[in-house]
């Protein structure tokens, strides 16, 4: 049997002939396509058999948890500015209680005929009872304030009122000069607008031994306690109240506390508070001067000077020193004019 050339075994054909054979080429391509299709099919089947992962979510804005506003911590409270009007009201309560106590002591003294006084009417006109009851009023209110306000303020009493005695000593010359200027203003007022004669204060001076008691009381007790009430409590409380209203209604920024923890105030607050403080201070002395308008205006101007000293130096001791020196000059003039309080008719 004779084989045709096309029927010869493939193994006996050269490699070049196999590569050139179109049938062989078609087989190779078909095999490759089959292999690729099988791989593709395997990949598709694997993908179909694998569970699809959920698409990645883009993080959005977090919603606040339920009741966030309820359980959210409150911002830390701002430091309390002291003293404020609430403290002034408490001091007023102490003054009222001290007034009742002084009246009670006054009645007891009359019952025992102290200083040979046997009636309440006589006690009202006696210098010992007048100054004694006033001293008891001041001391009682001061003692109550001294022991209770440190518990409220969490600082010492004099620190809360900005006593700052060292500051007053550093500026002692300027403070004495301020007191002297107030005295000159009083002398000009007396020369230009002479006040009424025979005023209540002049009648008190003419009582036996009253002049020296008034001299001592006027340069010690009166300046200290009047400054304690007016420039220690009322003035800073009014300054704080004015700035507090401006912060609430006009949205003005709150001034920070000073390095010592004391409040700072705006210029307008200090100006208005000084005027308001000076009105009751002057009216308190109006009766002693016979309700003289010029004397009341003079005292109001002196009070404005004392307020300025207190606010500029931030020292209550400074205003006490000016007040005391002013009173000392006034009483010294009376002392010299009456030759040592011997000729009170020259007043």
**What would you call the shape?**
globular
Give the integer mean of the pLDDT values: 84
How large is the radius of gyration? 48 Å
Overall number of structural domains:
2
Q: Largest sheet at a glance?
A: none
H-E string: HHHHHHHHHHHHHHH
Compute the number of helices: 15
Percentage of residues in helical conformation: 55-70%
Given as residue ranges, the uncertain stretches (5+ residues, pLDDT < 50) are 1-20, 24-30
Content-based structural category: mainly alpha
**Approximate strand percentage:** under 5%
How far is the first residue's CA from the last residue's CA?
Answer: 174 Å
Structure description:
By secondary structure, the protein is mainly α. It folds into two domains: 82-157, no CATH class; 161-346, no CATH class. The chain has 15 helices and no strands. Helix 11 runs parallel beside helix 12 and helix 14 (293-313) packs antiparallel against helix 15. The longest helix is centred in the last third of the chain and has 29 residues, at 221-249.
Report a brief summary of the structure:
The chain folds into two domains: 82-157, no CATH class; 161-346, no CATH class. 67% of the residues lie in helices and 0% in strands.
């Amino acid at each position: 049997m004779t084989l045709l050339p096309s029927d010869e075994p493939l193994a006996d054909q050269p490699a070049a002939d196999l590569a050139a054979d179109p049938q062989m080429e078609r087989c190779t391509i078909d095999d490759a396509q089959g292999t690729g299709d099988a791989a593709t099919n395997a990949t598709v089947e694997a993908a179909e058999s694998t569970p699809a992962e959920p698409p990645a979510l883009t993080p959005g804005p977090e919603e606040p948890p339920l009741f966030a506003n309820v359980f959210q911590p409150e911002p830390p409270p701002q430091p309390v500015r002291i003293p404020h009007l609430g403290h002034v009201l408490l001091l007023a309560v102490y003054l009222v209680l001290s007034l009742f106590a002084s009246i009670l002591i006054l009645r007891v003294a009359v019952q025992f005929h102290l200083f040979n006084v046997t009636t309440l009417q006589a006690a009202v006109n006696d210098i010992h009872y007048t100054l004694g009851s006033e001293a008891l009023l001041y001391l009682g209110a001061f003692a109550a304030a001294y022991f209770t306000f440190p518990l409220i303020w969490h600082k010492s009493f004099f620190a809360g009122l900005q006593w700052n005695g060292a500051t007053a000593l550093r500026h002692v010359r300027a403070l004495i000069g301020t007191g002297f200027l107030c005295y000159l203003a009083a002398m000009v007022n007396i020369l230009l607008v002479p006040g009424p004669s025979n005023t209540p204060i002049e009648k008190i001076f003419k009582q036996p031994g009253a002049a020296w008691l008034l001299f001592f009381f006027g340069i010690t007790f009166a300046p200290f306690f009047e400054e304690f009430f007016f420039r220690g409590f009322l003035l800073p409380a009014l300054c704080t109240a004015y700035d507090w209203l401006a912060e609430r209604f006009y949205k003005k920024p709150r001034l920070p506390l000073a390095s010592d923890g004391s409040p700072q105030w705006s210029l307008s607050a200090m100006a208005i508070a000084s005027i308001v403080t000076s009105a009751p201070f002057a009216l308190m002395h109006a009766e002693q001067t016979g309700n003289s308008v010029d004397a009341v205006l003079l005292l109001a101007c002196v009070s404005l000077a004392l307020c300025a000293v207190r606010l500029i130096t931030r020292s209550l001791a400074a205003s006490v020193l000016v007040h005391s020196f002013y009173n000392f000059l006034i009483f010294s003039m009376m002392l010299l004019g009456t030759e040592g309080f011997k000729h009170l008719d020259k007043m």
